Amino acid sequence: MRVYALCTGYIELDRASMVSDLKPGQPWTVPVTSFLVDHPRGRLLFDTGVHCQARLDPLARLGPERIKRLTVKSRAGDDVVPQLARLGLKPDDVRYVANSHLHFDHCGGNEFFPRAAFFVQRPELEAARRPGFVPSYSPSPIDFDHPIDYRMLDGEHDVFGDGSVVLLPTYGHTPGHQSLLIRDAKKAQLVCAADACYTRENMDRDVLPNVLWNPSVMRESLAVLRRLRDQAGATMLYGHDPAQWESTPQAPAPVM
Ligand SMILES: [Zn+2]
Fold first, then answer.
1. pLDDT tens per residue across span 153-167
2. Distance in angstroms (rounded) separating the CA atoms of residues 184 and 186
3. Which of 36, 64, 155, 181 is the most exposed place for a label (fewest CB within 10 A)?
């Protein structure tokens, strides 16, 4: 089994939106990441990044409200299809896709995988399909609402049935956020936290972002991830951490 980190966008936003106790007004460019797990029984893609249209026509893709808060800084090739091509893969080579959640920077490329089976937590998809039903959570249908084989999960899911690739419910950032736990043959553990933890600073100082659905639920999920890192010895890959990303091997080099 191999795991690869893919660059699926860059976004500039206010640093205080990600680390809520900082002073507002510091623009910050953060990476958007996806992960490809190449398992003997098939390939799983964790998150599909920002849609390539967002770089060329941000107003049309993201809408007027969102582009007041953030700027897409991706370069050509910083999206999922060309990133897979670095590994010699096409979308149809991917059997499973999991979305950590349905914000635009995690499911923008979903439409490119019409043949894959998608794993999403049930509360995430149900909330996304009923705009306004869950306050402060209204992802864009343009990103997730495609003729896609969504399979709704209720909690933990062992993707290949051998304990090596497990989706973990880490609700709070959104109603049904999930992270990915990977264990290799030597029992080394890697966790792709996605937006359950944006940066190392959020985990080390126990600070939540401004963008979230439920702070107490998110804090519990952050504690679960922190125990995996600090007690179980897992390597934690944060959702949008520029410093960590600089030192992370990127496809075609494997991260595990
Ligand atoms: Zn995100």
1. 999 999 999 999 999
2. 5
3. 64
* Dist. CA 92 → ligand 1 center (Å): 25
Max CA distance (Å), the chain: 48
Distance 208 CA to ligand 1 centre (A): 14
Can you name the residues that pair with 119 across neighbouring β-strands? 98, 151
CB distance 55 to 61 below 8 Å: no
Whole-number Å distance, alpha carbon 95 to ligand 1 midpoint, is 23
CB 44 within 8 A of CB 98: yes
Q: b vs e for 14-52, b when ≥16 Cβ sit within 10 Å of the residue's Cβ?
A: bbbbbbeeeeeeeebebbbbbbbbbbeebbbbbbbbbbb
Question: In order of start, what are the domains of the chain with their CATH numbers?
Answer: 2-246 (3.60.15.10)
Reference 78, options 44, 105, 38, 114; nearest CA is: 105
pLDDT in tens, 66-77: 999 999 999 999
Quote the pTM value.
0.97
Alpha-carbon gap, residue 85 to 32, rounded angstroms: 17
Residue 87's contacts (CB-CB under 8 Å, 6 or more residues apart) are 4, 36, 251, 252
Q: How far is the CA of 240 from the centre of ligand 1 (A)?
A: 7
Give the HSE-up count for residue 138: Cα atoms under 13 Å, Cβ half-sphere: 9
pLDDT at 149 over 90: yes
